[in-house]
Amino acid sequence: MTPSSSIASTSSITAPPATAASKTKVAKGSACPYQPSKTSKTPRGLCAINWMAKHPKATVADFAAHWDSVKGGETGNLWIGLSNQCPC
């Protein structure tokens, strides 16, 4: 028996199908606790400071989802107005 005859052919090996989980990319740090800058003057930063005070165990992904849900609406406009009033 030769060494090459004892090795299985790789042509008969197939990769498992990709699952939804393997196709989904998770943003780096999205499961980490979110720590907004305490000196931020941007609408997103001001919202983050306020929201994190109420949700201290929230993650980066949690806040990103919250911000995405409010940034185009009335609440987002409130944060824009407050940001414009900040002395910079």
Beta-strand content bin = under 5%
The largest sheet is: none
* Tally of separate helices: 4
Question: Spans of 5+ residues with little confidence (pLDDT < 50)?
Answer: 19-26
State the total count of DSSP E strands: 0
Radius of gyration: 24 Å
The helical percent reads 40-55%
The chain-level mean pLDDT equals: 75
Shape: globular
**Series of secondary-structure elements, N-terminal to C-terminal:** HHHH
**Distance N to C terminus:** 80 Å
Query: What structural class results from the helix and strand content?
Result: mainly alpha
Region (Disordered): 1-20
Description:
Helix 2 crosses helix 4 (74-85). The N and C termini lie far apart (80 Å). The chain has helices at 20-23, 43-54, 60-70, 74-85. The protein has a domain at 38-88. Residues 19-26 have low confidence and may be disordered. The radius of gyration is 24 Å and the shape is globular. The chain has 88 residues and is mainly α.
Short description:
Residues 1-20 are annotated as: Disordered. The protein is mainly α. It has helices spanning 20-23, 43-54, 60-70, 74-85.
